[in-house]
Amino acid sequence: MLREYYNGNYAKAQLDLDEASNTFSKISDLWKETKPQMRILDIGCGAGSVSGELAKHGHEVYGLDIMAEAVARAKNRGIKAEIYDVNNLPLPFKDSFFDCILALDILEHLFHPLSLLRDMSRMLSPQGYAIVFLPLHFDIRQRLRILAGKGILFYEHLWYNPNLVSWEYFHIRFYTIRETEEFIRAGGFSIERNAYRSIVTADMGWLSRHLLRPMVIRYLAHRIPSLFSSGMNMVIRQPISSDTLDGKFHRIDTQRQTPVSKQTMT
Questions:
Q1: Which side of the chain, N or C, has fewer Cβ within a 10 Å radius?
Q2: Cα→Cα distances 4→8, 14, 47, Å
Q3: How far, in whole angstroms, is CA 123 from its chain's centroid?
Q4: Domain coordinates of the chain in residue numbers?
C-alpha cells in the first residue's frame, strides 16, 4: 500500500519539483571529501539530483527509494539505485560499509525514524559521517497560524502543491530544534556541525515587504532558529571508543565487498 501511495499521489505531485529544487548545493557547505573515492549511501535518493553530483566526481554512490520513476532517473545519474522501502530494517548493507550516508528530507516520512538512524550508525565506517536534513516545524509562521485556528500548511507547502490539504500532507513526523537534538543523540550520534534554512515570508504581506526582508530573515534564522528557521542540516558522527574503532577497522579489512545482490534489494 505504501509503495502504491508513493508511486501514485506523491510521485505525481512531488517528484519533478523535488528534482528541480534539490541540488548538490543543499549539502555543499557540509560535504567533506575524506578520500578520493568514497562509498556513499543516499537514503530516499529520489531522482538523484543531490548525490548524482558525487557520482559524477568518481564516488561510488548507492541509492534507495520507493518510487520506481525516481530510481530510474537516479540510475541515469550514475547512482547504484534500487527500489526499496526504507521502513524495512535493517537496510540490506553490511556493517561499516559506507564512508558517508545522506538522509535528506526522509526521516519525517518514516514510521520508525529512530530505528533507521540507529541502522545508519551500523552501516557507517569508523571515521564515517552522515549528513541529515530535517524540516523544522512550529516556527513563528506556524505558531501564529495555530493561534488563529488555522492548520500548519502555508505558502512553502502550497508552492509544491497548490491543491495540498492538511489530511493529505506527506510528513508524519514533526520536529522542533530541541527534539531534533534529542533524536540525534538517541540514535547514537552527536551533531558536529549544523546549518539552518531560513523561513520563507512571501505570504506574510506587509511584514515581508517592509520588515522581514531576506537579509533580516537569514540573520534571525541564525540567531533565533526556533522561530525563524524551517529546516536543519547537520553533519553527525557517532562517538567511538578505541576498542570499538579497532574492531570496526578489522571488519572493514575482512568484509570489504559488494553488500547484497540486486535480487535481495528489490
A1: N
A2: 6, 15, 18
A3: 16
A4: 2-135+176-197+231-265
DSSP single-letter state for residue 199: P
**pLDDT digit string, tens, across residues 195-237:** 999 887 655 555 555 566 677 888 889 999 999 999 999 999 9
Question: 250 Cβ partners below 8 Å, 6+ apart?
Answer: none
Residue 4, amino acid: E
* Torsion angle (degrees, nearest 10) of CA 75, 106, 40, 127: 180
Q: How far apart are CA 104 and CA 135, in angstroms?
A: 9
Whole-prediction pTM value? 0.84
Reduced to 3 states (helix: H, G, I; strand: E, B; else coil), residue 242 is helix
- Which position has the grid cell 519533478? 16
- Topology annotation, domain 2-135+176-197+231-265: Rossmann fold (3.40.50)
Evaluate whether 52 touches 22 at the Cβ level (below 8 Å). no
